[in-house]
Specification:
- By secondary structure, the chain is an alpha+beta fold.
- The chain has one domain: M1 Pyruvate Kinase, Domain 3.
- The chain contains 4 helices and 13 strands.
- The strands form 3 sheets. An 8-stranded mixed β-sheet has the order 2-1-6-5-11-8-7-13.
- The longest helix is centred in the middle third of the chain and has 8 residues.
- It is globular, with a radius of gyration of 15 Å.
- It comes from Streptomyces lunaelactis.
- This is MOSC domain-containing protein.
- GO terms for molecular function: catalytic activity; molybdenum ion binding; pyridoxal phosphate binding.
């Protein structure tokens, strides 16, 4: 089976988790319709405090379902939407994608990958010790972020669980994902 959407989630209010939905609608240049993080300029509270005029490179948050299995092996109970993502995927290594990758979701929606989610301490408030599971260091001492990727909406459309995901890698030299 190829890459697919397993769950979609959104929330019109600030909270750590997002309820699962039957579908979400992506709006070009904005994000998920009705989601608190939708907009042309940044909506995440810490980023608004730094500079409310910066562009919103975090319109849509995607997490790979495989992360939940890894967390379960470490004793954590995490389900789709619990970490605030909008789209949960399966069958695709999101963290290995280069910056600028285009993901076609379902029949119409298109997002462009902007970078890695940089998880904050709120994750430990959700489940104590979870931050160390989603942010760590590799053998070389480099920081490894596993809490998903962020993207911007290039073409809108409705997304539902079961929708296929098509990956289009950028042309030219690939730039690894950095935190956004």
């Amino acid at each position: 089976m190829g890459a697919a959407v397993t769950t979609v989630s959104s929330n019109g209010e600030y909270s750590f988790t997002k309820p699962n939905r039957d579908s979400i609608t992506l709006l070009a240049g904005l994000g998920v319709a009705g989601d608190v993080h939708a907009g042309v300029t940044v909506k995440h509270r810490s980023r608004v405090a730094q500079d409310p005029t910066q562009p919103n490179l975090r319109q849509v948050h995607l997490i790979h379902q495989e992360l939940f299995a890894e967390l379960a092996e470490a004793g954590f109970e995490v389900a789709p939407g619990d970490l605030g993502e909008n789209i949960t995927t399966s069958g695709i290594d999101l963290l290995a994608l280069p910056t600028g990758t285009v993901l076609r979701l379902g029949e119409e929606a298109v997002v462009e990958v902007t970078g890695l989610r940089n998880p904050c301490l709120q994750i430990d408030a959700f489940q104590d010790g979870l931050l160390k599971q989603v942010v760590g260091r590799d053998e070389a001492g480099e920081i490894v972020r596993k809490a998903g990727i962020m993207s911007v909406v290039r073409a809108g459309g409705v997304i539902r669980p079961g929708d296929p995901i098509t990956v289009e890698l950028p042309t030219g030299a690939h730039r690894p994902l950095e935190r956004v």
